[in-house]
Amino acid sequence: MALRVYNVLTREKEDFVPINDGRVSMYVCGPTVYDYSHLGHARTYVSFDMIVRYLRYRGNDVLYVQNITDVGHLLDSGEDRIQKKARQSSALPMQIVERYARLYFNDMDALNVGRPDISPRASAHIPEQIEMIQTLIGNGHAYESEGSVYFDIESWPDYGKLSNRKLDESETGTRRLAGTGKHNPEDFALWKRADPEHMLQWNSPWGAGYPGWHIECSAMSRKYLGQTFDIHGGGIDNIFPHNECEIAQSEAANGVPFARYWLLVGSLTINGEKMSKSLNNFVTIADALKKYRPEVIRAFSFSAHYSNPTDYSEEALESAQKGWERLMTAVRLTREQLINAPDTDASARFSDTLDATRQKVIDALDDDFNAPTALAALQTLTREVNTLLNGGESVGRSTLEAIDKLYTELGGTILGIIPTAEVAASGDAKRETGLIELLISLRKQARDQKQWALSDQIRGQLAALGVVLEDRAESTAWHIAENVGA
After folding, report:
1. ∠457-458-461 over CA atoms, to 5°?
2. 235 with 269: CB under 8 angstroms?
3. How many domains are there within the chain?
4. What does the alpha-carbon distance between residue 47 and residue 197 come to, in Å, rounded to a whole number?
5. Residue 6 host element (H or E)
């Protein structure tokens, strides 16, 4: 079965055929690093992590680029988000950027989200953005006004093709808006003139200023993936104006199609309203990890298809936790019985069940990365595994190894919800957990006494054993690195 994806650009489910066979180029809009990451971000980036994992599982060489927005993301008031946060915090803008970028990656690491191959920053690619803006001015798709540069949407008839948004004809006919410098209210900023006190500004052919939000993704995706690439991803909330503007300016500058397949993740909502920093209705990833294991948060992210909206509630997370515990009960029981399993195997016929489960999961993921259906197939397998292992029949080593391999392959490698290093026996689990937490306690004592060398030594020794520590505001969380024992 061919991999099929729902392409938001064409509004059809299509066979996924990369530009170069066996090689996939993928760009995903990353975070604007001015505050803590929340569970809405978790859902988006866990979803794309699963997509990348599955593409690689299918044998593709994936080049995954995800940007960091550290300048140019403007509020409706026209103020840069990072500049505003810096002003409120009495800090330099790049202090804000560094702090929240580190916290973002810490959160992603804790959720077992693989790092992108390239994480370019907007502020590090100003020359590329200026070059693209000059091209757009040169070919008549942009104009300079009072030190700022705007994209002329009337010059690009395809504007709106992704979001299916039609421009208001009465607005389109207005050629000059008093005091704005724009020819049309829908024209968007490629470059903004900076006031002298603005802390984020660069020299340009149009004077001191800074790039608009949209141009960064066009410039950086072109630099690392080429003028046309396979997949563009992001959250559905950015479809307009951000993604729409990306397409218009990229295709107007390059003269070729931009991204071939558009995959957009549905919003995470609370009581039907989008989880958002601006609405102050968000739960940070760090706070969620104090209550739930990262695998549970991942499982919650897969409770609905990635393209559909999902409503957050404590009940929904608790349901995901119960489902994950059912899976892990079977995984742990399998690994416990493996310790003293006989070599003879009277249950070899179970291989048919395993083969059928693998095929169901592959078929689900080939159908637009349908993780909920894949997860349901693993839950069905879990019921059958529990029946087998608790049925009093001697289960041989080869069957137990095959069960463990399937869980690790489908639930671990692809979905990232089953740890490959989960301890085998419950007695060992209690001892290992206790020892890890004892070392974490000793490290806290060392930190409290400012014995930094000892603190770093404990952290380093735990890391060497595959135990990853995540220092939080009030505690230290830990998890086992995915590749331990691989």
Report:
1. 85
2. no
3. 3
4. 40
5. strand 4-7
Residues 442 and 410: beta-carbon distance below 8 Å: no
Closest C-alpha to 156, from 7, 28, 12, 258: 258
Q: At 148, phi and psi to the nearest 5?
A: -110, 160
Same domain, 44 and 183: yes
Residue with tokens 């938001």: 8
**Locate tokens 């990348």: which residue?**
52
- Locate 429 and state its tokens: 């689990």
Please give the residue range of the domain that contains residue 133. Answer: 16-274
- The residues, ordered by sequence, that sit 6+ positions from 205 with a Cβ below 8 Å of its Cβ are 130, 134
Task: Supply the pTM of this predicted model.
Answer: 0.84
Measured from the Cβ of residue 416, the count of other Cβ atoms closer than 10 Å reads 23
DSSP readout, 323-379?
HHHHHHHHHHHHHHHHTT--SS-TTGGGHHHHHHHHHHHHHHHHBT--HHHHHHHHH
For the chain, list residues with pLDDT below 70: 76-78, 167-180, 345-348, 421-430, 472-474, 480-486
Residue that finishes a domain, picked among 217, 240, 274: 274
